[in-house]
Amino acid sequence: MAERLHVIARVRAAPDTLSELTASIRILVDEVRQEPGCLRYDLTQSQDDPTVLIFIEEWASRAEWETHMTAEALQQHGARTRPEMILDVEVHALDQIA
């Protein structure tokens, strides 16, 4: 059986479009949670800087996460958002070591 994959993704939103971006992401979260192999897909927000949104994800395998990265839900989210809404993105695919 393939090893589970943990993913942390940080999105820094433009302050003036934060509510619009968050609304789109809430739709995304609901859709992704239904995807094959998705064990956890949570959206969190920094208490210190509300423009920092963090996805905490767990996938049954890296292959299922890679499928998710090209799936319909992310494509639709991309169509709902404008480039200026997101200032920065950082994604880390992680192996659990302890």
Summarize the structure.
By secondary structure, the chain is α+β, with helices and mostly antiparallel strands.
Give your account of this protein's structure.
This protein is α+β, with helices and mostly antiparallel strands. The relative contact order is 0.32. The protein has a single domain, classed as Alpha-Beta Plaits, CATH 3.30.70.100. Helix 1 packs antiparallel against helix 3. It has a 4-stranded antiparallel sheet with strand order 2-3-1-4.
Walk me through the topology.
Layout: E1 5-13, H1 18-32, E2 38-45, E3 52-59, H2 62-69, H3 72-80, E4 86-94
Antiparallel strand pairs: 1-3, 1-4, 2-3
Helix pairs in contact: 1-3
CATH architecture classification: 2-Layer Sandwich
Portion in strands = 25-35%
- Strand order in the largest sheet: 2-3-1-4
Structural class determined from secondary elements: alpha+beta
Uncertain runs are: none
**End-to-end distance, in Å?**
19 Å
Q: How many β-strands, per DSSP?
A: 4
Q: What's the order of the H and E elements?
A: EHEEHHE
